């Protein structure tokens, strides 16, 4: 069950699982998803870690405020959530937009970060024209108009054919995103420019990417790896954007080994 707490003047939906008093791992979701995107990763973490999942502003059961948002705002939301739950430090793991939020927290709130897991993410998201095209579809058809293209980007074709139940689960999650929430958060992703900021990150960092990811490519992951001083990079074969859902065993194994090495 999701719980709610007031943080940064909004109601944030979250779940806290795992042993009380254990080190906290925060999982931050992608655009057009919710904390439910992490279901396939929970069992690999909750024996040793307390895992905090939350719905980003504009997504899931968290408040939708008027947009556009910025990554800075979304990062401040995360820090405010940690404050509200009295969590002083955590391992931060984010995928796509979640990874962008974690980069910002790592650079601007280093005292709150034990380590960073930056998964299928980037420090910049050109070209602008691509976003204008998606925004036009959202204005005309709403989020349903974006579903098929999104699933095509998020997963390799063989996974779509092999796991229809997972695709249906993800489709439902996407459709629960409001058009207003999508446009507000997508604006933050579109306008982000964080490459130079990466130099400020001092926490141990895992950069994880699906080899076939067309949204946040291996080349973009390489930028993160080169710019962040204490980082390691791992590539998951035969996976696209949501590598945590496509290749959960490999994703979980790499993330867990990294967290254990830091902890």
Question: Mind sketching the topology for me?
Answer:
Blueprint: E1 3-7, E2 10-17, E3 24-28, E4 50-54, H1 71-84, E5 90-95, H2 97-108, E6 113-119, H3 128-141, H4 147-154, H5 157-162, H6 164-175, H7 179-191, E7 205-210, H8 218-227, E8 231-236, H9 243-246, H10 248-262
Parallel strand pairs: 3-4, 3-5, 5-6, 6-7, 7-8
Antiparallel strand pairs: 1-2, 2-4
Helix pairs in contact: 1-2, 3-7
Describe the structure.
It is a single chain. About 40% of the residues lie in helices and about 20% in strands. The chain contains 10 helices and 8 strands. Helix 1 (about 70-85) packs across helix 2 (about 95-110) and helix 3 runs antiparallel to helix 7. Strand 5 (about 90-95), helix 2 and strand 6 (about 115-120) form a beta-alpha-beta unit. The protein has a single domain (about 5-260), classed as Alpha/Beta hydrolase fold, catalytic domain (Rossmann fold), CATH 3.40.50.1820. The chain is globular and about 45 Å long. It has helices spanning about 70-85, 95-110, 130-140, 145-155, 155-160, 165-175, 180-190, 220-225, 245, 250-260, and strands at about 5, 10-15, 25-30, 50-55, 90-95, 115-120, 205-210, 230-235. The mean pLDDT is about 100. The chain is an alpha/beta fold. Strands 1-2-4-3-5-6-7-8 form an 8-stranded mixed sheet, with helices on both faces.
């Amino acid at each position: 069950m999701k719980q709610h707490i007031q943080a940064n003047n909004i109601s944030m939906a979250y779940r806290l699982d795992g042993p009380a008093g254990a080190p906290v791992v925060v999982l931050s979701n992608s655009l057009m998803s919710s904390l439910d995107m992490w279901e396939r990763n929970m069992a690999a973490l909750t024996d040793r870690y307390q895992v905090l999942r939350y719905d980003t502003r504009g997504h899931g059961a968290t408040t939708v405020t008027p947009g556009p948002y910025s990554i800075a705002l979304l990062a401040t939301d995360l820090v405010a959530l940690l404050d509200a739950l009295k969590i002083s430090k955590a391992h931060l793991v984010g995928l796509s937009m979640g990874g962008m939020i974690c980069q910002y927290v790592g650079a601007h709130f280093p005292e709150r970060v034990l380590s960073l897991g930056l998964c299928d993410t980037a420090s910049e998201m050109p070209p602008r024209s691509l976003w204008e095209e998606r925004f036009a579809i959202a204005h005309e058809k709403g989020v349903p108009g974006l579903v098929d293209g999104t699933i095509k980007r998020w997963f390799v074709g063989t996974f779509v054919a092999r796991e229809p139940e997972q695709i249906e689960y993800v489709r439902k999650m996407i459709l629960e995103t409001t058009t207003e929430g999508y446009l507000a958060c997508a604006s933050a992703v579109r306008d982000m420019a964080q490459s130079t900021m990466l130099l400020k990150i001092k926490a141990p960092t895992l950069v994880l990417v699906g080899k076939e990811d067309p949204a946040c490519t291996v080349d973009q992951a390489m930028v993160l790896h080169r710019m962040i001083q204490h980082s390691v990079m791992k590539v998951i074969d035969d996976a696209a954007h949501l590598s945590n859902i496509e290749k959960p065993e490999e994703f979980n194994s790499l993330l867990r080994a990294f967290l254990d090495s830091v902890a």
